[in-house]
Structure to design on (745 residues):
């Protein structure tokens, strides 16, 4: 089976190689067979299926490194399949899924289960993270060696911080033995307990239980010290404050193996967007001050922040239609990830290529993936999108089972037209 | 055999660690032990060298192997041997180590063998007692007679230590056996490697002039001797390593991993073994590669040599 697809008349943007030119791309047997400015310029290619890109951007498929689904255990909220439909519609060709499921992904057999379920049902690649501690209890490290062999790409307690420094120290040390990547969630668990907003004037006016923003930087600084001690590779899944960014920038400058991500909503929304108790904008960590939001955007532009993530977290009406303090945190985001991220380049803060870097080359580098680039021989994971086409986010138009978007009614520019995974078209806008 | 008055061979009246010994001390002890290997294999295993002397075995930690080895060594040399298992005696009634020491001192022993869970306990006793003190293991510090018996076993099989590569594998962090062995083997000219997950490697272990490996197959590549360490049960369940099955998969000695060592490589273990945790049964029981039983025999000979040497007074 030698299926060939020729993309012609594209604007090729490949952050890994710095390519940003008009040109073409040839897919053969699920891999990129050729790419370049002169490809298919003059003549129609012969036998292959031809996709005329009409000058739109053809880029490596996006890698979203922070996705929660409900599978196993809460498939009524979101399954791997339903999340993958949203991913495909959003140009996301690989989703790194968090282990916070029921049961928790803390056993090699469960990693195997996820990979098999994904192969059978999901439209895009599913890269499972395994728990760093058994049951996410923050006490006993998981079988990092066996889990890595089973296919876990990283180790994390997802949206939970490891409170016990001794436990984290040993887990990091053990992970370093296997060169395993650890993902940290930086929120001091005692300090943020019961909080649903960032401490400050706005939360005070609304009367919301709130936690100080430094709860994040405190954990980031502690974790960096432990990285220095253990030599482990540590990725902060998502940061949201300037103080955390400063600490990470300093750690990077000292040559420590530390990286970080930021969510699309922390780049585009601030605490005031909660307005009259909009629970669909209740997220963890909570939305921050405008100064912190602006610092996050700057952090992407300067390259201190390596990746932009959706932090896709499905919730139902039952968990969201509650008084703010009782409502569940989380927003879906797979379908809006690209458009929200592009608001940085549309706003003139950075280039399109740089935004795409945080969604392709950045995550591929940190997670050691063969995707995320337009290179000969690389898997043909591709997204074709119209950088400038505007659209309004409407929850009823989303492809995911869960519709709890924080961006309801918001207008973005950047519409995905087609998505390919391993050379197979998994989404085409009808 | 050794009935004639013999010249002193050690610089000190105690054996607290390998760190206090020179190459010459070690060689002299190993040479002396060779004569006791012969004596141990004879029909009449007993001499009167230490007739009238009192040896006290003071064990604050349970030990079958080391305690009986010292007991047998003392008896074969004609000493009166008293075993004190302190778990069940005065310590549980609140007596301090120094109180115990002065009580024992009043009994006028000539030799005291002590094992204690705290590093430095043997040294403390040596400062307070009038007799010779032999460290039979203090915390994660030293276990000198184990290293000496391992050295005797290796020397008898390989003729010496120069150009030998010895891989010490497993729970190095908590192991006094590893510390004594790496000091002794390095001093005698062997190349020593430590092989363990990072959670079981002590800080700055590289400062000891050893090579550090976290990948066991690489650590065993070209090794002449593979020395396995015991992993204590309480360290297998998540604090230092996640599980027994994962530990065995990556750090347990099986045929596949041993195949990376030099052809004819020999396997040692200080005992007691955890089969299926740090060592596969078929290797432990394979007399072609396993020196484990031989180590026990050499243990008695080494301890006889140590008792002999210390009872001669010091140079």
């Amino acid at each position: 089976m030698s299926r060939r697809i020729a993309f012609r008349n594209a604007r090729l943007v490949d952050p890994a190689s710095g390519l940003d030119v008009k040109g073409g791309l040839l897919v053969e047997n699920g891999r990129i067979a050729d790419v370049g400015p002169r490809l298919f310029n003059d003549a129609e290619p012969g036998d292959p299926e031809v996709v005329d890109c009409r000058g739109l951007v053809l880029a490596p498929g996006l890698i979203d490194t922070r996705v929660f689904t409900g599978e196993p255990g809460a498939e009524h909220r979101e399954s791997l399949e339903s999340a993958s439909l949203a991913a495909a519609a959003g140009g996301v060709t690989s989703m790194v899924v968090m282990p916070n499921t029921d049961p928790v992904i803390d056993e090699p057999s469960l990693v195997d289960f996820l990979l098999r379920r994904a192969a059978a049902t999901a439209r895009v690649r599913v890269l499972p993270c395994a728990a760093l501690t058994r049951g996410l209890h923050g006490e006993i490290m998981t079988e990092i060696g066996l889990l890595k062999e089973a296919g876990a790409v990283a180790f994390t307690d997802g949206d939970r911080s490891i409170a016990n420094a001794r436990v984290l120290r040993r887990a990091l040390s053990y992970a370093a033995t296997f060169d395993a990547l650890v993902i940290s969630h930086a929120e001091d668990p005692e300090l943020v307990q019961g909080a649903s907003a960032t401490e400050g004037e706005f939360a005070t006016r609304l009367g919301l239980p709130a936690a100080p923003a430094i709860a994040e930087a405190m954990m980031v600084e502690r974790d960096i010290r432990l990285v220095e001690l253990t030599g482990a590779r540590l990725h902060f899944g998502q940061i949201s404050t300037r103080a955390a960014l400063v600490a990470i920038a300093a750690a990077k400058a000292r040559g420590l193996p530390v990286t970080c991500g930021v969510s699309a909503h922390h780049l585009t929304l601030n605490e005031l967007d909660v307005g009259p108790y909009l629970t669909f904008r209740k997220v963890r960590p909570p939305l921050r001050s405008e100064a912190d939001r602006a610092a996050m955007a700057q952090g992407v532009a300067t390259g201190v922040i390596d990746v932009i993530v959706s932090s896709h977290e499905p919730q139902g009406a039952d968990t969201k239609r509650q008084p703010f303090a009782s409502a569940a945190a989380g927003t879906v985001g797979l379908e809006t990830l690209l458009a929200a991220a592009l608001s940085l380049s549309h706003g003139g803060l950075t280039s399109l290529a740089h935004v795409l870097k945080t969604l392709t080359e950045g995550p591929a580098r940190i997670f050691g993936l063969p995707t995320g680039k337009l290179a000969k021989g690389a898997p043909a994971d591709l997204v074709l999108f119209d950088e400038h086409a505007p659209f309004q986010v409407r929850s009823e138009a989303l492809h995911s089972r869960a519709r709890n978007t924080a961006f309801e009614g918001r207008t973005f520019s950047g519409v995905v037209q087609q998505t390919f995974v391993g050379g197979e078209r998994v989404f085409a806008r009808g | 055999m050794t009935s004639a008055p013999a010249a002193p061979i050690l610089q000190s009246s105690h054996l607290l660690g390998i760190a206090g010994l020179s190459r010459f001390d070690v060689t002299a002890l190993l040479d002396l032990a060779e004569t006791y290997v012969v004596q141990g294999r004879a029909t009449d295993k007993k001499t009167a060298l230490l007739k009238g002397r009192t040896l006290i075995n003071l064990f604050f930690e349970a030990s079958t192997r080391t305690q009986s080895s010292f007991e047998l060594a003392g008896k074969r040399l004609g000493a009166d041997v008293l075993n004190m298992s302190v778990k069940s005696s005065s310590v549980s009634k609140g007596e301090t180590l120094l109180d115990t020491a002065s009580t024992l001192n009043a009994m006028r022993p000539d030799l005291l063998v002590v094992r204690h869970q705290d590093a430095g306990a043997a040294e403390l006793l040596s400062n307070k007692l009038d007799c010779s003190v032999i460290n039979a293991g203090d915390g994660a510090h030293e276990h000198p007679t184990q290293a000496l018996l391992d050295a005797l076993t290796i020397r008898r099989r390989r003729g010496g230590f120069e150009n030998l590569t010895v891989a010490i594998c497993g729970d190095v962090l908590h192991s006094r056996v590893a510390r004594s062995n790496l000091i002794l083997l390095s001093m005698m000219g062997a190349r020593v490697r430590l092989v363990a997950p990072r959670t079981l490697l002590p800080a700055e272990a590289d400062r000891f002039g050893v090579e550090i490996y976290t990948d066991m197959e690489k650590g065993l590549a070209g090794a002449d001797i593979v020395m396995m360490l015991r992993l204590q049960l309480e360290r297998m369940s998540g604090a230092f390593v996640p599980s027994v099955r994962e530990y065995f998969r990556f750090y347990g000695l099986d045929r596949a991993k041993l195949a990376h060592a030099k052809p004819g490589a020999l396997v040692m273990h200080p005992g007691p073994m955890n089969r299926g945790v740090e060592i596969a049964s078929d290797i432990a029981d394979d007399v072609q590669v396993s020196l484990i039983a031989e180590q026990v025999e050499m243990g008695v000979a080494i301890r006889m040599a140590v008792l002999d040497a210390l009872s001669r007074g010091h140079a």
In short: The longest helix of chain A spans residues 214-230. The CA atoms of residues 6 and 50 of chain A lie 5 Å apart. Chain A has a mean pLDDT of 96. The first strand of chain A starts at residue 4 and ends at 14.
